[in-house]
């Protein structure tokens, strides 16, 4: 509330006189309601509008990162188990997880395309400079060999399993390159750690699926501890950074999602596995936590990418 | 074939948007919404899947001698933005189908009959130009009027520009013209005029370059754009390390596990 005084009333008289004499008022300080007007400047950028375009991917892509990663790591674990002469049932289940995962991945990838009927165009060319192209070929090799590892007869089946393990290593890690080598600030900032992060997440998911299938090989717990350790370190690193690029990983809804995924894949399973490694129930709990954590982590990274592209240009 | 380019001189732009209209009309680009932004006279706001030329209205506090109607009023600059047609193009590197190609004119072109709408180019453009059109599913951006150039015509925007703010021609010739223009402007006292062409970044220069005044960030132009391909070595190294760790780790884990 303002109180009218002599000065204010004199000023209003002046404005009336100026309007009456000149037909307009253009004295300094007269601006539109809501002034100051939005400005384009070095500090504001172009009215604070974002510079970049948001990723167009919907939930299918992070879901594929999760499913494809778990399938790829399972293929590798299956071969490692076979080499050490572990239980045959474990080897067979790992191969089935790989094959089923590959078959779930294809529809996810195709559904997200703007023109799904043209999905085969992915195999028109091979471009090493495009992580998406490299990934399409890795996925094709993986899909074929993972299915071969469950349907082919005799020695061919083992050969296919070895192929699926090799391609599976790519499946578990290339998605980190896919996000890292882009113009999206939060992804590009973490280009050097995303493949390790996603690889650990994929390993944890594969281990968890096998454990939830009822397998109790000690090796699975060891791998579970190792990946939970890497996930804990990744989460701690994000929390300790104070850069602008990683802000979507620490604040807002995407920050909460990242944190939830990080806690469920890092410290929670790590503690459960270390403290209760002798209890079957505790290990199952750790497996479930890792599995949910891995899915949330993938969703969080894609959501953070959208938030990162949305934020005003620096 | 000669390599062609755009030289867009914002000091000559009058903000008429003839380039936007000409582009839409020639290329049959659909509307991109009818909304009122409240940000200067710009209701288009950004380049996108259905905006291939975009006139920016860079409005800011009065700077004496920098245009505007009177010293006490806001100062205006206009600048017609367009796909930069990078020398090292992020979208072209990223495209997994080979839909995005380099044409005989040196421009970057999306072949609409091949694009399957994977969206990877969208996150690979350091300028936020290319985007996927939801109503169509494919990615779109300025074609540099590839069809018109093949017919020996200049792009629609350049032809429609009434002030020669948009110049089209041989790229090297345009660079010479731009150098002469900037020299002249500086001599006239317009010392804040600069050429925006990121030649000393990994983008390696652009085939569409600009003359703007003051801070380029006011025009939503990134001061140091980099192509994502520069991140490939460290990202793939990380992937190799992770893959190696998973392979050796799982074999070791089972070997250890079996010992008991």
Please supply descriptive tags for the structure shown above.
heterodimer; A: 314 residues; mainly alpha; two-stranded antiparallel ribbon; 12 helices; 70% helix; B: 260 residues; alpha+beta; 6 helices; 10 strands; 27% helix; globular
Question: What's this, in brief?
Answer:
The complex is a heterodimer of chains A (314) and B (260). Chain A is mostly helical and 314 residues long.
What does this protein structure show overall?
The complex is a heterodimer of chains A (314) and B (260). Helix content of chain A is 70%, strand content 1%. The mean pLDDT of chain A is 94. Chain A has 12 helices and 2 strands. In chain A, strand 1 (40-41) and strand 2 form a beta hairpin. The radius of gyration of chain A is 28 Å and the shape is elongated. Chain A has helices spanning 6-22, 60-83, 88-112, 131-151, 154-180, 185-189, 194-212, 218-240, 247-250, 252-265, 267-275, 280-310, and strands at 40-41, 45-46. With 314 residues, chain A is an all-alpha fold. With 260 residues, chain B is of the alpha+beta class. In chain B, the strands form 4 sheets. A 4-stranded mixed β-sheet of chain B has the order 8-1-10-9. In chain B, a hairpin with a 5-residue loop joins strand 4 and strand 5 (108-110). The radius of gyration of chain B is 22 Å and the shape is globular. The relative contact order of chain B is 0.19. The model of chain B has no long low-confidence stretch (mean pLDDT 93). Classes of the chains: A mainly alpha (314), B alpha+beta (260). Chains A and B meet through strand 1, strand 2, helix 2, helix 4 and helix 5 of A and strand 2, helix 2, strand 6 and helix 6 of B.
